[in-house]
Fold:
Amino acid sequence: MTATDTSSQLEHLQPPKRADARRNYEKLIEAARAAFADSGSQASLEEIARRAGVGIGTLYRHFPTRQALLEAVYVDEVEALSRSADELADLPPWDALAEWLRRYVSYAVTKHALAEELAASVGAETTVFKLCKGAIWGAGEPLLQRAQDAGVVRRDTSFIDVARMVFGIAAIPGADPEQIQRILDVALDGLRYQPA
Structure:
């Protein structure tokens, strides 16, 4: 399954809307993303509506619960990460994989609190989590396989190894974004194929 296939499965979670409703929906997602980054997943819904420039009723028409809004933000960001793999298709295999993993670790650093909130409120094995995991796998696994086929990445690793490595690095407490990227670069050196 490709990143595009899985991403299209996620799109069913967001029903089609009129142009004006779609604009409001997108403004709410962007405002929620910013509010969650600033204040955590408990950011005020009223504040999110204010940031989006809409009334609280508009927010509730699109997202009847806090959970629905959290899921929509999570799905939106997973879709963007998954689509970004397609943007890297013209790069050499190692460069494409390394750049996507840099994006993946940046995504993972900011999503721990949101993912924990979602998991705590509905359990970790929801349809949304399964589809999001599938979208990430559908984007990252072909990049890893392409790099392995080109002989630039160790053959004794799988995408689950790489995903765990990225989440482990992203979860380092107190690390700033530059330090996270430096640690990822060290880990990527270990992922490269080394002739015996």
Summary: The CA atoms of residues 9 and 131 lie 7 Å apart. The chain is about 75% helix and 0% strand.
